[in-house]
# Entry
Amino acid sequence: MVKEAPKIASHLRPILESVPDPEIPVLTILDLGMIREAKEIDGEVYIKLTPTYSGCPATDVIGDDIRTAFEKENMKAHVELVLTPPWTTNWISEEGKIKMRDYGIAPPLSESADKLALLEGEKVVPCTLCGSTNTHMVSQFGSTPCKALFKCEDCYEPFDYFKCLI
Amino acid sequence: MNNQALYNYILGVTDNSLILAQRLGELCGHGPSLETDIAITNISLDLLGQCRSYYQYAAKIKGGDTTEDSIAMLRTEREYVNVLLVEQPNEHFGFVIARQFLFDVFHLLQMQELQNSKDETLASIAAKNIKETLYHRRFSSDWVKRLGDGTEQSHAKMQEAIDALWRYTNELFEITEDDQKMIDAGIGVDVSKFKETYYKQVAEVLEEATLKVPENKYFQTGGKKGIHTEHLGYLLTDLQYMQRTYPNMKW
# Structure
């Protein structure tokens, strides 16, 4: 998969950084890599937004939140939904992954480790509370389609794991 | 470009997901366990999200006052062209899993082909769908194995469901006139190309699940022409209730 760097005008970045993901509010939409392009033409802002999952109800909310954030700066924002290239968990920033873990969601592992965890039942996903990898998958789908439900066998903490989407 | 054929082709691909999403949605709060309940409604949500992309595109092609909502909510029963498999009722959990599995294997193969479509919009929606459909197929295959190779009772129920739904599998590979036009244009997927692969992949999982591959030769069809089993009407009553009762209502 081509990893295309998003084209985001630097002066628009701080405004986009103020828009959180409605489901995981510690992450911004920039952390998640959902903004593929942001530019200003003649005082109006044009944003290309890519959904994480097709059915994610947060996508519509995020579009509204972006428009509102720019309205506050007296700017009109046009949000366009783009599907190509499709979103991948590789676009989540390193900082985003750390914030995610601190929030209690295990961030996506590498593709190979992810397969071991989800398909082979290998104990590789570290518990977000105690760090032990003595964990097992309870369900392939967690509280949202992007997450799987895990449980730590050492400290018994149940936690979400953000599934790898390549 | 034949717009009507393209429109019909898109519905042929998407109605399957819409009707299956609605069926799965019925289990919200009624799944056999919390985890399966959540998983099934998540799959439903994925499918519904996929539909939106296709219907938005279809609405653009159709033009006029057609919207994604009017396509999804306001057609009559005969205008839905989903395959009969996806409209079959939930019966018991074995049926839910068998129906899902028999569809997921097809759906993934279909999307893998559709991502090479000459139509860029369809190709990009398909590429996005593949990632999600992989998880669905994984989920349903796991459960087929778990139930098939489980207790005597779960095995019997899983076999019962596979046997009952088998007659609807052949229809997945039917090609309508409009499908053929789109295949010729390099836009649509020639589903007959992977029919053998489909039955092979299904058989592999069934064998691993210690289930028998049904041998019946009788297959039922009709959905793609709008001739449905009695179950679809009831499903649509539920699906369309809000829009019919309060026309043009929005959240």
